[in-house]
Design a protein that fits this description.
Radius of gyration: 22 Å
CATH superfamily of the largest domain: Acid Proteases
GO molecular function: aspartic-type endopeptidase activity
Main location: secreted
Strand content: 25-35%
Oligomer: single chain
Helix content: under 10%
Mean pLDDT: 80
CATH class of the largest domain: Mainly Beta
Protein name: Xylanase inhibitor C-terminal domain-containing protein
Number of strands: 24
Distance between the termini: 25 Å
Shape: globular
Order of helices and strands: EEEEEEEEEEEEEHEEEEEHEEEEEE
Largest sheet: 5 strands, mixed
Number of domains: 2
Family: Belongs to the peptidase A1 family.
Keywords: Secreted, Signal
Number of helices: 2
Length: about 300
Amino acid sequence: LSHSGACNGNCTGSSPGHPNKDCTCSHLSYNPVSRTSTGTGLNEDVITIQDTEGLKPGPYLKPDLGSSTNSPGVIFIGEGPYVLLPNIDVSKNLFYTPLLTNPISTAGSSFGGEPSTDYFIGVKTIKVNGDLIPINNLLLEINEENGEGGTKISTIDPYTKLESSIYKAFVHSLTIPRVKKVAPFEMCYKSSSLPSTRVGPGVPNIEFVLQGKNGETPSFIISGANSMVAVTDEVLCLGFVNGGENPTTSIVIGGHQIEDNLVQIDIDNKRVGFSNSLLYQQTTCANFNFGSTQGREIV
């Protein structure tokens, strides 16, 4: 559904199934990078993607008259397998949490009654090195009246943002000796003071305890590779930032925290699957077999 609240052009005489050719649905388009909004008409387009059976690339699927395939990517659509080198089906190690609906849009602008298009999940609590962080649990719930609170996954925000009180409780639990901070981070450390492990710098694991089925509480575990950011050769910083007081969303899980994690957005079953760091399985997201294949056109 478009959830359009207005029309562009001449809509006189339009009816369901028989729209005026000059009448198009209008929408408020929000750009989360520039944080700007504009009104625009809805349209359709076609993209070029490369098919895959989950193990190796298949043909390019593209419209007639052709699109560029000079910079192909790979996308897994369906239940799997999701095979990465050296022949590891990472779909077998997914755990799931419900995909939640926020009934109120969290975009910079929207029509009234429009739900959020962001991917929300239910974080029950946060642990650092196995210890619970004291959090106001009301902040972890989505407020059905104004859409505030809760937790969403974002590939736009580079680092995880935590509401101010959550952030302060979180960093208070970390007792590693610090060095001068480097913006936008507040918690920085001397690289040489931290041991190196297979899953990144040897720092305490951060655990987001999630909603599960039948009383289960699966955990999204963030190890050193995803919690720390190398800002210089000598300094590592904690890749979490203070989201301020009263943000629209209490926890925004950023791109750095899900690097080299397989995250499956399962719309049909209303769930999100996590693999946790693929480094534990001695592989990475870049370890797909990107061998060449002959493309074909579809109309």
